[in-house]
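User: Quick sanity check before I run a bigger batch. Here is a single chain. Can you write out its predicted 3D structure?
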Amino acid sequence: MTDITLKLNADPLILQALQEDISSEDVTTNAVMPEKKLGCVELICKQDGIIAGLGVFERTFQLLDPDTRVEFYAKDGDEVKNKQLLAKVTGDIRVLLSGERTALNYLQRMSGIATYTHTVAALLEGTKTKLLDTRKTTPNNRIFEKYAVTVGGGYNHRYNLSDGVLLKDNHIDAAGGVRQAVEAAKAYAPFVRKIEVEVENMDMVKEAVEAGADIIMLDNMSHEQMAEAVAYIDGRAETECSGNITRENVKAITDIGVDYVSSGALTHSSPILDVSLKNLTVL
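Assistant: Done. Predicted structure follows.
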């Protein structure tokens, strides 16, 4: 995540998270540390995984005090091990204590997503199929969670509703059918936008191909139905499969030959990666 991205898009969200945790003051910290004093604390990994969000972790402390310094011994995307020293944070002890939980929340959540994504992406290695995330993200945390997916080896589907056209079942119902929905999208959306259609059976697949959809999403279809659909589409549109895709079942679709597989589980069901700030010392 670049410095520009952090400043323009992430900083306001990080500040909101800090404000949520410190509504008026950190009573505990102010009680034990009434005055500024320099200290250092270690960031330690407590289980194996993929680390992601180190820049956000650092930025959380620096928004409280720009003089806070973080010395990293790992970078986003690294495979990390239990008990590994990842960084040392040096600064005003009051800042280290007050920012600890928010900084760790981001790092644990993002690293958990990267770790889970990495395990799913590994199951697709050697195939043409790319692993995508979805918009099933935590409100106000999408920028962090989608970044974590890319760190773990996945790819981002559209970022938000302004990012592309995806005609789902309710859009199709509202338009009166697949053909009508695609025609309306082609007439309205900028020509640079691809048009994706979600389909549930072969009749919808055929209609989407005939209407000129750019991407056809095979949603909650059986293995046999997806194989039939991909054979029928035959390169006339890109293909994506979706619907309850997890680490446990993703390998079953690798022989179908879809271009993409999207999984909401990457962001909504990834467990956190356990990391901790320990061994605070007064300098």
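The chain has a mean pLDDT of 96.

User: Great, the batch can go ahead then.
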